[in-house]
Specification:
single chain, alpha/beta, four-stranded mixed sheet, 24 strands, 14 helices, about 25% strand, binds uridine-diphosphate-2(N-acetylglucosaminyl) butyric acid, about 425 residues, globular
Length: about 425
């Protein structure tokens, strides 16, 4: 199993281009199932989760071709099997995103029930509730969700809790439903908006994009000739590199990233002492060689501070000046990185859903274990500043969501390499 070996102590400097967002690309690839015409998706990041999604579409019989720039041509008119098998769903929970599109377009779907997850229970009850409200007949048997409907009917749904993929699944079902659906308390993460813009490009009629109330006038079919759609930039990848630069007291420029996507994150970086300058699609962070100041954080749905940046900021707080609290309100078990950070010398403890951290002068390298995607990123970030060589094991987690991370960090001057042992 591959590991990352990081020698800490290099100040990051230089420029990077931000990749397309994993959490936009995944629902958009699922949404191509709704189109009666072939579509081309660009700016797709090179990630393990993307490969798994393409494998999933491929095993359903969807025709796929990828060019040298990673533009993906997708033709779902060749579909044969309306099923997402357990072998794939098990490795990637977001496979659940094919449920809404399959049901809406083909009237039937069989999707393996995702199991537990390293960051929390992550139920999908709200996805199923929404589809049932649209008239779907849903049963769960032998570990599979079996869903059937003739044509889905529009619904008025108030989500009990803000759910990103839940909103996306119901949105993808509602675009082909009969009548006008209203989805209240919808997620308004930029990736949900990106999916909605893509659906509209295919001929859907969604309004209220970017707000928590989405109105969807159902249409009979979707698909237009020669549609090419570029996935939005990855705000979490961008935020991760900004924190990496901040912890090493460096200066970096990120390109192809609209700063409006990560205002809450930039605000916290400014509180940590970073000088941030921005343009339409670039961000510069400069620490002027200073140690970061501790920042307290509470995660919440967009536009508040994202849970997907919590672990990275925790790593920064470990060596920051002062005491901080980090409260996680989205997932009940997203502190798996804390024990590993303790092993690197962090003065940090967990009290219920809050982490209390007293910044220390330095971390020391240790062999550490990645447990989920963002936890892995926090360990890599900690390794960049730790004294000695940090070996991060189980990095398949990081390959699920970070495009060529060791190449990008090397480009910024980090001493990092992938090792098979
Ligand atoms: N929830 C329910 N019932 C549901 C759905 C969600 O109780 O039917 C709860 C969850 O257990 C959680 C909360 O609602 O406590 C919010 O979960 P949400 O559904 O929003 O999470 P998700 O859609 O499964 C997406 C991202 C995650 C990101 C979260 C929160 C994708 C593919 N995944 O997950 O990304 O953390 O939204 O923003 O979009 C990551 O990239 O590392 C990652 C985990």
């Amino acid at each position: 199993m591959d590991k990352l070996l990081i020698t800490g102590g290099q100040e990051l400097a230089g420029e990077l281009t931000v990749s397309g967002a994993k959490n936009s690309a995944l629902p958009i690839l699922a949404a191509t199932l709704l189109s009666e015409k072939p579509v081309c998706i660009g700016n797709v990041p090179h990630l393990h989760d993307i490969t798994t999604t393409l494998e999933l579409l491929g095993c359903m019989g969807v025709e796929l071709s990828i060019d040298e720039k990673l533009n993906i041509d997708i033709n779902s008119s060749t579909i044969k099997k309306l099923e997402a098998p357990y072998e794939l769903v098990r490795t990637m929970r977001s496979s659940i995103l094919v449920l809404g599109p399959l049901l809406a377009r083909f009237g039937e779907a069989h999707v393996a029930l995702p199991g537990g997850c390293a960051i929390g229970a992550r139920p999908i009850d709200l996805h199923l509730l929404g589809l049932k409200k649209m008239g779907a007949d849903i049963t769960v048997e032998n570990g599979y969700i079996h869903a059937k409907a003739t044509r889905l009917k529009a619904c008025h749904l108030v989500f009990e809790q803000v759910t990103v993929t839940g909103t996306e699944n119901i949105l993808m079902a509602a675009v082909l439903a009969e009548g006008t659906s209203i989805l209240e308390n919808s997620a308004r993460e930029p990736e949900v908006n990106d999916l909605a813009y893509f659906l509209n490009k295919m001929g859907a009629k969604i309004s209220g994009i970017g707000t928590s109330t989405l109105t969807i006038e159902g249409v009979e079919r979707l698909g237009i000739d020669n549609l090419h759609y570029d996935v939005l930039a990855d705000r979490i990848e961008a935020g991760t590199y900004l924190v990496a630069a901040a912890i090493t007291r460096g200066k970096i420029k990120l390109k192809k990233i609209p700063p409006v996507l990560l205002e809450a994150v930039l605000e916290k970086l400014i509180d940590a002492g970073a000088e941030i300058t921005t343009g339409d699609d670039w961000i510069v962070l400069n620490m002027h060689g200073k140690r970061p100041k501790a920042v307290s954080i509470r995660t919440a749905p967009f536009p508040a501070f994202p849970t997907d940046m919590q672990a990275q900021f925790t790593a920064m707080n470990c060596i920051a000046e002062g005491v901080s609290t980090i409260t996680e309100t989205i997932f009940e078990n997203r502190f798996m990185h804390i024990q590993e950070l303790q092993r690197m010398g962090a003065d940090i403890k967990i009290e219920s859903n809050t982490v209390i951290c007293t910044g220390v002068e330095k971390l020391t390298a240790a062999p550490v274990m990645a447990t989920d995607l963002r936890a892995s990123a926090s360990l890599v970030i900690a390794g960049l500043i730790a004294e000695g060589k940090t070996l991060v094991d189980h990095i398949y987690h990081i390959d699920r969501g970070y495009d060529h991370i060791e190449e990008k960090l090397s480009q910024l001057g980090a001493t990092i390499r992938r090792t098979p042992r």
